[in-house]
Design goal:
The complex is a heterodimer. Chain A contains seven helices and no strands. Chain A is mainly alpha-helical. Helix content of chain B is 37%, strand content 14%. By secondary structure, chain B is an alpha/beta fold. Classes of the chains: A mainly alpha, B alpha/beta. Chains A and B meet through helix 2, helix 4, helix 5, helix 6 and helix 7 of A and helix 10, helix 12, helix 13, helix 14 and helix 17 of B.
Chain lengths: 216, 654
């Protein structure tokens, strides 16, 4: 690695570190004014960093918004290339994009195409997914007959039947509530804790320049 | 492991490797900047090929890519790859290394699975060409199916005997879901209660919280769900928005999902269909506001908190929202309709800390309710979790009961009735007092707005929803059933008079007025230098005193009358920014003022005829799914016990 390359890496790491620290400290102090009690230096520091942090935050939002636009452009370009290779479905995509855009602009923001096309299609896909899940659940025991499959099927049946409005199924509701509040909630919170820890680790690595993502 | 470790730099040189000749400077230059030549540049830019190659496989993208890589001279390789190639070339015998590739990469024969709706796989023509290409590369013998005719896979899936269970599953669920819509008399289903019970005090509190809104309140409505959840959450959104409109508050709709913004527009269009029967219309940027999309998920919500004034400045269509919001504290309430707990957590953690007095009313789907409820129970500033279609039904019942005194007679369901002609004389006091029931429900909104469509002549004048401060020392005409002199001002200025949003010359211009125009006065500012006048029954403005002359007239001259008699130029004006040659040019455009003061409760009229069948379909579908799972599990268990279960393919092969 040449000297200039190492210098560039160090420079990138310093910039990333400063940006991370400014944003983090500002958001921490700004969101928790009483974090350091009445310490005047903390208030001064929060006031000093408020503007740079807001600017950085908006820059990131702008970059993300620009990324959406680039994504759309890339999608169109990719399908234009596929169209030139004779893929007819790409023509349908490009045509529907142009039609939707024209419809929205020409009819003063009319989004009825969304209501008439995208909403039914996505709802139908969700319904198909439900059908697939039911089919899969019905075949779990057939594919693997063990205690875990049995537990899975029993839990699923309790949750499904307890959601029915009939009074005869009232005893199942206590089981359903326990299942959802204790094991499911605990598992989800454990997952969220894991994600949060991983996010902190990734953030620290990026701030300290350990990750090469922005160093080329 | 240190990411900076470069194994190429620290690799031990091979003893038998001859010293690799160092590429010349010209070669290195070409390798570094060779792509600047036109063909290379075209490849870098990924422009589409204008000429399609003839001859089957050459047209395939993967083959073309491999061909292009083959044609690339070795000198164009990256320096590290070049070094690696030079070091490895003497030591590796390519033929020996690849001698076992045929055995390792033989293409397994593709087998047709026994029926099924989605299990059958099929290869497209391009995929078969790619398989053939890989076989050509590794020199594998062609399978029997590929040698002559293409593999025939999955013919008529679902029609084989093996696909019968899945077909039966699909048909039975379809029947269960459709039955309530075609033969509801055969479906027995217990409808949800008409009020939230004691164990749902949080949901009842959410209802009451929305019921305390007034005409000067703004509600930030976050719609965080996509089209897949729309079937369940649309009902809740629809109900919330109708209640907000009925309370005459104004929602600011925002989302980090661009589809949700467009979808919200359709929901409001549906509500507009309800109020159209009363000749009303909800006006964008006046009665409701569709804010711009928040990119970046949690980051977008954080940006909303930090830069709310900027986010609330421009609408989703790029129009300027002339409301001068400064911070989230301008919002009375935050209403969140989210499809997942993650999104709810984002809003609670990123947005709620902006203001200590801001509370969040949350609604979600049935699937997300358990986690959302547990999360809401741990947060003091979340009011209620209203979840799913059944809660929506209860909420609608509760809403309808609370506003039943307002409902036009004989019109509880769609189709909506045609509005009767509004009485021009004030209603008797007994009729005016009747809607006070809703005020006891917790609505401080003046009830007379619905009792009489001419609120200015009615004894109880509704509060005018406006961002302008209420007039001080306003000698408003005393309410009385008998016509009283109306305080008017007439424009006397020869020049065009400007009616502004506030009593200063720096406030926005709402409307232009000309000599002879007459307006009703509802108050003045402190020193009497500005009159607060009515432009329409729901919109007021300020005009300088030296431009007008005041007088009193007998009752009957209302703002609506004045608006009707206004010349065309005097329709309401709004600022708009239109991009022109890269420069924003503000200009005024005309907006037809809509008299929206009467019968706002028309927004509560909804078509509820499908609610009960939908709930029954939900129950029957769930029951069918449970039965299918039970039957499938029993059959599977019997097969396992009987030993007739087929071993997995991997076990059979071993």
């Amino acid at each position: 690695m040449g000297f200039l390359q190492r210098l560039g890496s160090a420079f990138s790491a310093i910039i990333a570190f400063l940006v991370g620290v400014i944003t983090l400290v500002s958001l921490l102090l700004g969101g928790n004014p009483g974090l350091f009690g009445d310490l005047p230096q903390a208030a001064d520091l929060a006031a000093l960093l408020a503007l740079p942090a807001a600017v950085l935050l908006r820059l990131v939002a702008l970059v993300i918004a620009l990324g959406v636009l680039i994504g759309i452009a890339n999608l169109l370009l990719t399908h234009a290339q596929r169209l030139m290779r004779g893929r007819a479905l790409s023509a349908a995509l490009l045509g529907s994009f142009a039609l939707t855009l024209f419809w929205y602009v020409a009819r003063a923001g009319d989004t009825s195409l969304l209501e008439a096309v995208q909403l039914p299609i996505e709802s139908s896909l969700a319904a198909l997914l439900c059908l697939t899940l039911v089919g899969g659940a019905a075949r779990v025991i057939a594919k693997r007959a063990d205690i875990w499959s049995l537990l899975f099927v029993l839990s699923l049946l309790i949750v499904l039947l307890a959601s029915l409005p009939w009074a005869e199924l009232e005893p199942l509701r206590a089981w359903r509530d326990w299942l959802l509040r204790v094991p499911v909630s605990a598992g989800t919170r454990a997952l969220l804790l894991g994600i949060a820890l991983a996010t902190v680790v990734a953030g620290v690595r990026i701030a300290l320049g350990q990750d090469r993502a922005y160093r080329g | 492991m240190n990411d900076d470790f470069n194994w190429l730099e620290y690799a031990e040189p091979l003893a038998e490797a001859p010293p690799a000749p160092r590429p010349s400077a010209l070669q290195r230059l070409r390798a570094r900047f060779g792509w600047l030549r036109l063909p290379g540049l075209m490849r870098r830019l990924r422009l589409p090929k204008l000429r399609r190659r003839r001859g089957g496989q050459n047209a395939d993208a993967g083959y073309a890519l491999l061909e292009a890589r083959d044609e690339r001279p070795i000198s164009q390789l990256d320096a590290r790859l070049l070094a690696l190639r030079e070091r490895a070339e003497p030591a590796i015998n390519a033929e020996a290394a690849l001698s076992t590739v045929d055995e390792l990469l033989t293409t397994p024969p593709l087998q047709e699975k026994p029926g099924g709706l989605i299990s059958a796989a099929a290869l497209s023509q391009a995929q078969r060409q790619q398989v053939q290409m890989l076989q050509d590369i590794v020199g594998a013998p062609a399978p029997a199916a590929a040698s002559g005719e293409p593999a025939r896979l999955g013919a008529l899936p679902g029609l084989t005997l093996g696909g019968a269970p899945r077909l039966l599953l699909a048909v039975s669920m379809l029947l269960a879901v459709c039955l309530p819509f075609v033969a509801s008399e055969y479906v027995v289903d217990e409808l949800p209660p008409s009020d939230f019970g004691g164990d749902r005090a949080d949901a009842a509190a959410a209802f009451e919280q929305l019921n305390t809104l007034t005409g000067t309140d703004y509600v930030l409505v976050a719609l965080e769900y996509g089209p897949t959840s729309a079937g369940e959450l649309d009902q809740l959104t629809d109900l919330f928005l109708r209640q907000i409109f009925a309370q005459r508050a104004k929602p600011l709709i925002v989302s980090s999902n661009p589809i949700a913004i467009a979808h919200a527009q359709n929901i409001i269009k549906r509500i507009n269909g309800s109020v159209a029967a009363a000749g009303l219309k909800l006006v964008n940027n006046a009665d409701y506001f569709l804010l711009r999309y928040l990119p970046g998920g949690a980051l977008g919500t954080r940006e909303l908190r930090e830069n709310f004034a900027d986010v609330a400045r421009v609408s989703a269509r790029g129009e300027l929202i002339n409301r001068n919001f400064k911070a989230l504290t301008d919002m009375k309430l935050l209403l969140l309709v989210a499809e997942s707990i993650d999104v709810m957590r984002n809003w609670v953690e990123q947005v709620l800390p902006a203001s200590q007095r801001l509370t969040l009313l949350a609604a979600t789907g049935y699937a997300a309710q358990p986690l959302a409820q547990a999360y809401a129970d741990s947060q003091e500033r979340i009011i209620g979790i209203i979840a799913g279609a059944r809660d929506a039904y209860t909420y609608a019942e509760k809403l309808e009961a609370a506003y039943s005194t307002f409902k036009p007679e004989g019109a509880p369901q769609a189709p909506l009735p045609q509005p009767t002609a509004p009485p021009l004389t004030p209603a008797p006091e007994s009729e005016i007092e009747a809607p006070a029931l809703i005020a006891t429900v917790a609505s401080p909104v003046p009830a007379a707005a619905t009792a009489s469509p001419t609120p200015l002549a009615s004894p109880t004048v509704p509060s005018i929803p406006s961002v302008t401060p209420p007039p001080t020392a306003s000698p408003t005409p005393p309410p009385s059933p008998t016509p009283e002199p109306v305080w008017l001002v007439e424009v006397t200025s020869e020049d065009t008079a400007r009616i502004r949003r506030g009593p200063t010359t720096v406030d926005d211009i709402l409307q232009l007025a000309y000599a002879g125009d007459t307006f009703e006065v509802i108050g003045t500012n402190g020193d009497g230098s500005w009159y607060n006048i009515l432009l329409s029954p729901r919109i007021n403005g300020w005009i300088a005193a030296f431009l007008v002359e005041e007088r009193y007239e007998a009752g009957g001259a209302t703002a609506a009358d004045a608006s009707a008699s206004l010349p065309r130029e005097q329709t309401l004006l709004r600022w708009d920014y239109r991009a022109s040659l890269g420069k924003n040019q503000p200009r005024l455009y005309q907006v037809n003022p809509t008299d929206t003061s009467i019968d706002w409760e028309y927004v509560l009229l909804r078509d509820r005829s499908l609610e009960a069948p939908r709930l029954a379909a939900l129950s029957l579908g769930t029951l069918a799914a449970a039965l299918i799972i039970v039957i499938g599990s029993v059959v599977g268990a019997l097969r396992a016990i009987g030993g007739r279960r087929q071993p997995p393919a991997s076990e059979a092969k071993s």
